[in-house]
């Protein structure tokens, strides 16, 4: 029997955790579903990635209101993916912040990405009718680095290199050595690399590691609350990306077509990573993008709902 497209057969609701990392930092996680970070300053709250719909974001707001009544003034989009940004309107934030590279990607492919992601993973877009028409636009963009002071709390927004996308932004609390990595780091969850830069991602992870985070909120999976756990998260993500790249490059060097490379890479990685959530979902997209990068496409091609299903039929049909 062929596999159901992407995650259309994934219907099981996950258990939410709201983990306190410090007086100022919390992680809203859900067993491998997309995470949301929360930073509470002296006078305002920042939300990092919004959940996929305004209705889903209401549950984040409910958790925030259990610990503070300060206004939610800032939303940070770590990158452009729909599952991270379409809940933004629920927070009523004064400012929505993203890198200029992320804004460029929203301009270029935001509409296609929205349709594609909703089609791939309907469960992650609960009450999708609550998403306003159009796209989520940043009101503030920056390049490279930006510092916000939430009263006495310093929040650095940093682009430390390309990886999961071209526009990846991390948030760093230097006083507490807590890092919010977005999808650059995953834990017990398969990195989605359909829009990735495989050649850059390992160096970007080195740049994250150089900050020496004591705690880290990954894009998916549990909050990492010790330096050892942070190392594990960084290493796991790095090994997965390096293993996909090595297998795909060997196939390309041997003159193999995408289908052959996919089947070989899947078989090679399944024993090591098959227990991570969304492994079967991610692999066709990841290998397709990696094959593109190893051949003739330095930049990720735009995924459309049509391209998604066509690719799936070719590799999994
Ligand atoms: Zn993403």
Describe the structure.
The protein has 317 residues and is of the alpha/beta class. 38% of the residues lie in helices and 21% in strands. It has eight helices and twelve strands. It has helices spanning 54-67, 82-85, 100-120, 201-209, 227-253, 258-273, 279-294, 305-316, and strands at 17-20, 25-30, 33-40, 45-48, 72-76, 95-99, 140-142, 145-150, 153-158, 170-173, 178-186, 215-220. The strands form two sheets. Strands 1-2-3-4-5-6-7 form a seven-stranded mixed β-sheet. A five-stranded mixed β-sheet has the order 8-9-10-11-12, covered by helices on one side. Helix 4 (201-209) packs antiparallel against helix 5 (227-253), helix 5 packs antiparallel against helix 6 (258-273) and helix 6 crosses helix 7 (279-294). The longest helix is centred in the C-terminal third of the chain and has 27 residues, at 227-253. The model has no long low-confidence stretch (mean pLDDT 96). It binds zinc ion. Zinc ion (ZN) is lined by residues 79, 81, 84, 164, 183, 192.
